[in-house]
Amino acid sequence: MRWSNAFIPTLKEEPQEAEAISHKLMMRAGLIRRLSAGAYTYLPFGYKVLEKATRIVAEEMNKTGAQQILMPALQPAELWKQTGRYDVIGEVMIKFNDRHGREVALGPTHEEVVTDLAKNEVRSYKDLPFTLYQIQTKFRDEVRPRFGIIRSCEFIMKDAYSFDVDVDGMERSYKKMYDAYCRIFERCGLPYVPVEADPGLMGGAVSHEFMIPCEIGEDRIVLCAECKYAASTEVAETVDTHADTANDAPREKMKEISTPNTSTVKDVSAFLGISAEKLVKTLIYFADGRYIAILVRGDHEVNEAKIKKTLNLTNLTMAEKDAVKRVTGGPLGFSGPVGLSGLPVYADFAVKYVRSAVCGSNKADYHIMNVSPGTDFRVDRYFDARTITADDKCPKCGGTIDIKNSIELGHTFKLGTKYTAALNAKFLDKDGKEKLMVMGCYGIGINRILASMVETSNDAFGIIWPVSLAPCEVVVIPLNKDDNDVRTVSENIYNTLAEKRIDVIIDDREKSPGIKFKDSDLVGFPFQIIIGKKFLSQGLVEIKIRKSNISSQVKIDQVIDKVLEYVRG
Q1: Average of pLDDT values for 486-492?
Q2: Which of 93, 115, 318, 395 is the Cys-Cys partner for 419 at CB 3.0 to 4.6 Å?
Q3: Cβ contacts of 565 within 8 Å, gap of 6 or more
Q4: What is the DSSP letter of 298?
């Protein structure tokens, strides 16, 4: 490839709309361009990196015995209605009616479609097991697309689906995929962390996310340096160790106090001059057709994923303000458990140990002081209902934990029979009896591989690509293009590397050395071969390693071998 003929529109300035480092650098390096919110064009170098990531994913999938297919992006809504996910996924799904009046959706994922395929093709246990995968564009109507290709409305995903005769078979299929994911991210040079995760609307009993710790990440993970425990904050358990914090000293009489215009924990704490942990928050939810109350301490956050799992709920949404008024008798922001009736009251373990606390009074601009659970209000059930904090201990070993923002790269699920039961996907076992196929599901956001690599591997000059993903492995930079010796040596090195199947580009533009160096560092080629008159007169050329920014002089007849050693390890 010759730079003079390539479409590599690098930018000197950072684009104003870009927030994340990866977004800025991918725009500046000429990898992507924004068409509209959440929709991006991949320019030649961006597409090359995307293609290399896709190839790694496909190779590792094929090693497991998975077989590649391609399913339609257009999906009939009826399949989603049969599994109950049509309404659950809500407005994230792009839906419309075709010219025949049929409800159609652009696929955000393909569990329903692939299960329908298996249902119609599998007859006997002899047809199982198998795993199918595809690499395809998916669509989600994101409320707030952000960070370039990290959270977009249109994205490329590898999604795989295993079908087995029983749970043991699914476990074996799941292990194969888990191991394949580790190999994929290692080959991509990514600092990934597998964590226990919440299956969410995908369903199933067990799932793992493959995360990249990163400041801009919108997910949060819990890490323990002592026992290596790793989990999403959605599932990380909190240990019930608050008994020693309960205050058994005599308490004052419960009383109502005026708290005008103080509907938040922060406002109430400031108004009364107390810490947030002395407050009990009461949140009203609509849960599978009924209202419930959830209590947590003022300094804790409700964990909806835990609540759904513990109470075996399909839908859980915050109640609208009119519903809160109807259920509690008071406005939103002033709900409290004292005197609350007509709905179940659930509380986090930590609430059990609060004494002389403050809570809402179910009346505008008033709170109640000196309340204690069991004495002043009822709790129907205590369980782990909150999100873990950095002050908590590791639920496995009791050690100190660290909580980090992370980007989700992949997610694996043990679906079981969630979809095969809903779509009646059965097979005949050895005894001729009908049984449901047992499924696993495995997704990777291929776009995110690129963005995560850039986000975690860059410096003040630009991107630092690993050889496995780089748009070109080597760039040849002639500094004095008009000099016949410089031109001849540069062309010979370029042509020889190309013949040896090294992905190489020569910067043959009529540009200054400074511009060439800056563009090469910005794009992030792993190795630069620099040919200038000064070193050439001594029979030497310069090789710069982008990752370390260390340069060395090499004899001309040793350049090819040295580069092959670098590139091929």
Answers
A1: 94
A2: 115
A3: none
A4: T
Distance from C-alpha of 22 to C-alpha of 46, rounded to nearest angstrom? 12
Q: Give the pLDDT confidence of 351-399 residue by residue, as tens digits.
A: 999 999 999 999 999 999 999 999 999 999 999 999 999 999 999 999 9
The pTM score is 0.90
Cβ neighbours of 121 (radius 10 Å): 10
The Cα-based distances of 218 to 109, 111, 193 in angstroms read 20, 25, 15
Second CATH level (architecture) for the domain 243-382: Alpha-Beta Complex (3.90)
What residues form DSSP beta bridges with 151? 146
Confirm if 522 and 511 have CB atoms less than 8 A apart: no
- Residue for token pair 């993970």: 221
Contact 365, 310 (CB under 8 A): no
Cite the beta strand spans of 298-400 per DSSP E. 316-318, 345-348, 357-360, 366-371, 381-383
Q: What is the pLDDT, as a whole number, of residue 249?
A: 55
The backbone region for 363, taken as left when phi is positive above 0, alpha when psi lies in -120 to 50, beta otherwise, is beta
What is the percent of the chain with per-residue pLDDT over 90, rounded to a whole number? 89
Q: Hey, what amino acid is at 501?
A: R
275-319 tens-digit pLDDT: 999 999 999 999 999 999 999 999 999 999 999 999 999 889 999
Q: How far apart are CA 91 and CA 159, in angstroms?
A: 22
Helix (H, G, I), strand (E, B) or coil at 434: strand
**Other beta carbons less than 10 A from residue 91's beta carbon:** 9
Q: Does domain 472-568 have CATH number 1.10.10.10?
A: no
User: Considering only CA atoms, which of 280, 299, 309, 310 is closest in space to residue 379?
Assistant: 280
The secondary structure of the chain in percent helix, strand, coil, rounded to multiples of 5, reads: 30, 30, 40
Residue boundaries of the structural domains of the chain: 12-207+407-454, 243-382, 472-568
Average pLDDT over residues 204-229: 90
pLDDT band of residue 244 (cuts 50, 70, 90) is low
Structure confidence by residue, pLDDT tens digits, 403-414: 999 999 999 999
Select from 508, 501, 471 the least CA-distant residue to 486. Answer: 508
User: 294 with 385: CB under 8 angstroms?
Assistant: yes
DSSP 8-class letter at 15: P
What is the crossing angle of helices 44-63 and 167-187, to 10°? 140
Using alpha carbons only, give the angle 95, 97, 102 rounded to the nearest 5 degrees.
115
The residue with tokens 């999100």 is: 387
Report angle CA 147, 148, 150 to the nearest 5 degrees. 70
Q: How far is CA 304 from the centre of its chain?
A: 18
Q: Which residues contact 388 (CB under 8 A, 6 or more apart)?
A: 222, 233, 236, 237, 238, 395, 401, 403
For 80-125, write each residue's pLDDT tens digit.
999 999 988 888 999 999 999 999 999 999 999 999 999 999 999 9
Q: Higher pLDDT residue, 274 or 204?
A: 274
Confidence class for position 198, pLDDT limits 50, 70, 90 = confident
Which CATH number fits the domain 12-207+407-454, given the four candidates 3.30.930.10, 3.40.1190.20, 3.90.1150.10, 2.40.50.140? 3.30.930.10
